[in-house]
Design brief:
The complex is a heterodimer of chains A (450) and B (361). Chain A has 16 helices and 13 strands. With 450 residues, chain A is α/β, with parallel strands linked by helices. In chain A, the strands form four sheets. In chain A, strands 6-5-7-8-9-12-13 form a seven-stranded mixed sheet, sandwiched between helices. A two-stranded parallel sheet of chain A has the order 1-2. Chain B is mostly helical. Chain B contains 17 helices and four strands. In chain B, strand 2 and strand 3 form a beta hairpin. The N terminus and C terminus of chain B are likely disordered. Classes of the chains: A alpha/beta (450), B mainly alpha (361).
Chain lengths: 450, 361
């Protein structure tokens, strides 16, 4: 008898706890003149460098818009943070916690492939967009199937295509890739695995051999992987790392005598935090990016003057202003705000619903002149998102680390979208079939709206 | 085997299993959350607690009752989840219930293979050998067909359909999970009172002595590994189908960290107790959330990273304190508190839970 009551008590207790948590949910008063952004940040854990830099940039940009312009057409930008530590379960808990916020979320940005996968069904049901700048599910570029996912600027497929073009140029032309051996050293996570099949496809097309070598999370020990590399003797290595894995890879490369100029880093292996801990071993390392680093663009100057001048900057370490992750966060903030402006033109200068925000993102078109106008000349090239193409055809550039800063070593590179699109459409069609989704008819939607 | 050898104790078992208390808890679990629950309660608290609690129950059977330490819980969760996914995807017209059960059986079969070292190894050495299962499963998911050729290795669990009825709401998924958990829990509660259950404990306490008095050690170990793997496999299915909706084997999914958190559940909740598994799971799920809420209100200006680190320190300290002051876990703590509240020490023996008397013998 008593045993059962004991269990009952324990149960009631956890119930009480649960309801306490449930009832303590967002009690903030609603205001029509604000747009809320839930930020699933990671400021601690093995990937904190990426998290603090990126979300720091995003927050700095939103602060700038609030302080300089008084918000977006009078609508103030607000946000709150929830720490995920880059863990999927925590990311989902954060989603549940923030989705009932009042006013409701405008757009989600978890900056994690795993978390965005787990949120896909949920945000689609909620009709709130989710942006995965420079990462995310490759096939989500197909907006006809993934209505609410936006892998802005580039996805891992486009990025891989640009990297292969760069390696080709290193050998004096794509035809010289024939018979070459390329290793992809990847982070053992969904993000890391994503590009291997595509790279193998590119290998078949250009006649190079691909070997994929996994580095399990977090990647602080890579002895056996580099032993394998030494035996295989690749002509080039693509480093698809994340966090601590990158400096360790560069240091181990130096130790095993692999030349640094035969390694190219992908977008999440391209930051100052990846090379600085490697010391001398990082000098001469090249990596791809969608946004240049440095503080020369007008928007960075504005942020330094207005936001950091008023001591409202988010980065604790001011030397990180203008770093790769910080600038990426700024670009992400900028794309989000510009999409908001686009949507406001159609729906009025008010708080947007998730679906209205989606419409804004789908009509986000910034050519070089428009990028110049928002003060980002030289920071990133351009973007043109449409209903079919949620990626927006961003261009990529390669930067080399000289020991103190990154300097561009190529021009802006166009990925081979014509070759990638059928692959994306095949994958998205398979997803649509598995999930029972009927792809949207974008042309019809456009005419219906007009 | 269980049935025949348990005949002597079966009447006692059935008598004490379905008590008014158990019925009350079940009734409450089915009725109260849907009445008061927000989506947050279901998705962020109840769903992970049920799945993690079931995994803890499986491990508790193996470690708490039978004394076989395992660090491969996440591997068996992964096997269950991936098997259920592939069965649903590839076997036409399979009923979801059948695919779940088959997934559990599949996990049990793999569990039998990886229990072979248990015939020779004990304690730490066995724990290390179970790591092999952990790494084997992570490696095996690299075969592209396992993830249905998903380039990232993450797959989406299909919607649950039971006899043609598609469960779409979060409440519906909760009922499915709760029913499965309740059935398996009753099964385990029954099992540990049978001769087989007593054999588990005999092996845990002294394997040599158990052998001498005629406990079939080999058979018993096979049995406990199979049942434990089955239950943990099903918990993986729940994790994938009723909670997260996505399945991944490596980092951030069913990795070694998950195995450790299942182990922490039974250490905190109480070894060799059934409710301890769920108490431990509830603690592991709800406590960090509560801390982060409280921290968020008290120190709103503090950035999320510092707050998170503070939580880790507090949770770590609490685990150590629990281990020092209440090595029998939350289950024993609640027992003691209950006795204090009711103030009665008389009939003490009656008041201690039946399971615990068995567990403590």
């Amino acid at each position: 008898m008593t045993k059962s009551f004991g269990m009952g008590r324990g149960y009631l207790k956890s119930l009480a706890l649960g309801s306490l948590i449930a009832f303590s949910l967002g009690a903030t008063p609603s205001s029509a003149e604000e747009q809320y952004f839930p930020l699933q940040v990671y400021r601690q854990g093995p990937y904190a460098a990426g998290g603090t830099g990126f979300f720091g940039g995003m927050i700095d940009y939103m602060n700038l818009i609030n302080m300089r312009d008084g918000g977006v057409n009078g609508v103030k930008l607000t946000w709150s943070e929830c720490e995920t530590g880059y863990e999927v379960e925590k990311g989902v808990e954060c989603y549940q916690r923030m989705k009932d916020h009042n006013p409701p979320p405008g757009v989600w940005t978890p900056l994690s492939v795993g978390i965005s996968y787990a949120m896909t069904d949920k945000i689609t049901a909620d009709q709130v967009p989710l942006t995965t700048i420079n990462h995310g599910r490759t096939e989500s570029s197909d907006g006809r199937v993934f209505k609410y996912l936006f892998p802005l600027l580039t996805n891992s497929g486009s990025e891989t295509s640009a990297i292969v073009q760069y390696i080709g140029s290193k050998f004096g032309g794509m035809e010289n890739l024939k018979g070459k051996k390329i290793v992809i050293l990847f982070h053992g996570s969904p993000y890391g695995k994503e590009t291997t099949p595509l790279l193998k496809q590119l290998g078949e097309k250009y006649g190079f051999e691909v070997k994929d070598i996994e580095v399990p999370h977090p990647g602080a020990e890579q002895g056996s992987q580099w032993l394998e590399i030494k035996r295989y003797k690749p002509d080039f290595i693509i480093l698809r790392g994340w966090g601590i894995m990158n400096p360790v890879a560069l240091k181990t490369a130096r130790r095993t005598g692999y030349p640094i100029d035969k390694i190219v880093g992908n977008i999440w292996s391209n930051s100052e935090e990846d090379v600085k801990p490697a010391g001398d071993a990082g000098i001469g390392y090249t990596a791809v990016t969608t946004q240049t680093s440095g503080t020369s663009s007008p928007i960075l100057q504005d942020i330094i003057k207005t936001v950091y001048g008023a001591n409202k900057g988010d980065l604790a370490d001011k030397s990180r202003i203008g770093s790769v992750y910080h600038n990426l966060g700024i670009v992400n903030g900028m794309l989000t705000v510009e999409a908001m402006r686009v949507a406001q033109k159609k729906f009025g200068n008010k708080m947007l619903t998730g679906d209205e925000f989606r419409w804004g993102l789908e009509h986000l078109n910034l050519d070089e002149a428009a990028v110049d106008k928002v003060g980002a000349k030289g920071l990133f090239h351009s973007i043109n998102v449409t209903c079919e193409n949620h990626e927006g055809n961003g261009l990529l550039i390669f930067q080399k680390w000289d020991g103190t800063k990154y300097e561009p070593v190529t021009d802006w590179i166009k990925p081979d979208w014509a070759m990638l699109r059928p692959i994306i459409e095949n994958a998205s069609a398979a997803y649509a079939k598995e999930k029972g989704i009927t792809p949207r008819n974008c042309a019809e939607e456009e005419t219906a709206q007009k | 085997m269980i049935v025949t050898s348990a005949s002597s104790s079966s009447s006692r078992a059935t008598n004490s299993l379905i008590t008014p208390g158990v019925l009350f808890i079940l009734a409450a679990a089915y009725t109260i959350p849907p009445l008061i629950g927000s989506e947050y309660l279901f998705n962020a608290i109840l769903a992970p607690t049920l799945a993690l609690g079931l995994a803890a129950l499986g491990l508790n059977l193996l470690t708490g009752y039978a004394g076989q330490v395992s660090l491969a819980s996440a591997a068996f969760m992964a096997i269950g989840a991936f098997a259920a996914y592939n069965l649903t995807l590839r076997v036409p017209d399979i009923t979801m219930v059948v695919s779940f059960i088959l997934a559990g059986l599949f996990a049990a079969a793999i569990g039998l293979i990886f229990c072979l070292p248990a015939f020779r190894l004990r304690g730490f050495y066995l724990a290390i050998s179970t790591l092999a299962a952990q790494f084997f499963v992570q490696w095996a998911t690299n075969f592209p067909w396992v993830t249905n050729y998903s380039p990232s290795g993450v797959i989406d669990a299909p919607p649950i359909s039971i006899f043609g009825y598609v469960v779409q709401t979060i409440q519906g998924k909760y009922f499915v999970a709760l029913t499965i958990v309740a059935l398996l829990t009753i099964f385990v509660a029954r099992l540990v009172r049978t001769q087989a259950g007593l054999n588990f404990i005999a092996i845990r306490d002294n394997e040599l002595a158990a052998k001498v008095i005629g406990v079939p050690v080999l058979k018993t170990k096979l049995l406990v590994f199979a049942i434990s793997s089955f239950i943990i496999g099903i918990s993986g299915v729940l994790w994938a189908f009723t909670y997260l909706g996505t399945i991944q084997a490596g980092y951030g999914g069913f990795d070694l960290n998950r195995s450790f958190s299942v182990l922490f559940c039974i250490i905190i909740g109480g070894l060799a107790t059934i409710r301890g598994s769920y108490l431990g799971a509830a603690f592991m799920v709800a406590f960090p959330l509560l801390l982060s809420r409280v921290g968020g209100y008290l120190f709103a200006d503090l950035n999320a990273g510092i707050l998170e680190n503070c939580q880790k320190i507090i949770i770590g300290a609490l685990i150590i304190l629990v281990l020092i002051f209440e090595p029998d876990g939350l289950s024993a703590l609640i027992d003691r508190m209950w006795r204090k509240i009711t103030g009665a020490n008389k009939n003490d023996k009656e008041k201690t839970s039946d399971l615990q008397t068995i567990g403590n013998t």
